[in-house]
Every structure is written in structure tokens, then in C-alpha cells.
Amino acid sequence: MKMPNAIIGKKQIMLAGLTLVLFLGIYINFVSSSGNGEIKSTGKVKGANVNYGESQLVDTKTDDYFAQARLDKMNSRDEAVETLKVIMNGGDSTEEEKEIATEKAASVSALIESENQIESLIKAAGFDDCVVYLDGENANIVVKSEGLQANEAAQIKDILLSEVDVLNENIRIFDVN
After folding, report:
1. Which of 25, 56, 94, 132 is the most exposed place for a label (fewest CB within 10 A)?
2. Exposure of 130 by Cβ count < 10 A (0-12 exposed, 13-18 middle, 19+ buried)?
């Protein structure tokens, strides 16, 4: 039968040292985060009737939808234009990159103008509100309606196609009431 070896080897010294460093790190973290050795308290949550997990029906108004959609569209277009300006005015851009950025800026400007024109024409056709999204190949139109009829969808499609060239399979019309 072998006797346990009481000689401490390199592995045991390394293990003890790493354990000591770990506990020292935990202690320093505790002292520095708690401040003066005291545990920080965030206070009580005040609220007598708290029902976690209870769902509520939220009524969103379509006017808010269209306003938010316009704001989101405007913000994304502003970011795109700002990026193109940085590329065009950047000192490290090549002439080819500047030319491509100029073409994209002109394209974005034309799309914005077309979207505004189509929205105005759709509203003039008798719809309360609408938002048009164009990206050059696709057209998405959201119209405020109590149920879009086939003839109304055809009217919207005609208005769209009078302003831009989009394939029929890339046109999507949505109604929101």
C-alpha cells in the first residue's frame, strides 16, 4: 500500500496561487463596489397593485401610425443622405467613390420626390392618408382605408405606375384602418 505523498509539488503551488488570486480579486471587487464595506440599497419599489405578466390592449391610432411612419422614413433618408455627403466630401474617397455617391444622392432625391408626388395623388384620389416607400425596384404603399376594394387598389397602382417604373410583382399595397 502506498503512502500519500506529503511533498508539495509545482502543480499544488500553482493551484494554491491561482486560488489566492481569485479570492483576492473577488474581495477587491466586493470592497470597491459596495463602498466602505456596506451593501448598497436601491430602496423599495412602491406600488401596491403590481401584476407582472398581465397584458393590456393598447389602442394605436392610425394617425399615429402614419405620423410615425413618415418620421421613420424621413430619419432613415436623412441618415442615408448624411452618409453620402460624408463620402462625397471625404478626403480619402476616390473619384470613383465620389461619383457613385453623387449618383446615389441623385437617385435618393428622385425617389423622395416620386414618393411625395404619389402620396399627394393618392390623397387627391379620395384616400384619407397614405405612405409610399420606394427603393428603385420595389414599391410599398400603406393606405388608410376601411377595407381596400379591387378597383381602389387598381387606382392606386395606376397612380404609382404613372410616376415610376416598377414591375407588377414588386408592388405591394397595404390597407390600415
Report:
1. 56
2. buried
The percentage of the chain sitting over the pLDDT mark of 70, rounded to a whole number, equals: 77
Whether 52 shows a pLDDT value over 50: the answer reads no
**Grid cell digits, residue 58:** 393598447
Distance of alpha carbon 173 from alpha carbon 153, whole angstroms: 7
* Chain mean position to CA 172: 22
Cell for 105? 444622392
Residue bearing cell 405612405: 131
C-alpha cell at 161: 405606375
pTM for the whole thing?
Answer: 0.58
8 Å CB contact between 34 and 27: no
pLDDT greater at residue 113 or residue 8: 113
Confidence of residue 121 (pLDDT cuts 50, 70, 90): very high
pLDDT value, residue 172: 92
Count of residues for the chain?
177
CB 133 within 8 A of CB 119: no
The answer to whether 122 and 152 are in contact (CB under 8 A) is: no
The answer for residues whose C-beta is within 8 angstroms of residue 1's C-beta and 6 or more apart is: none
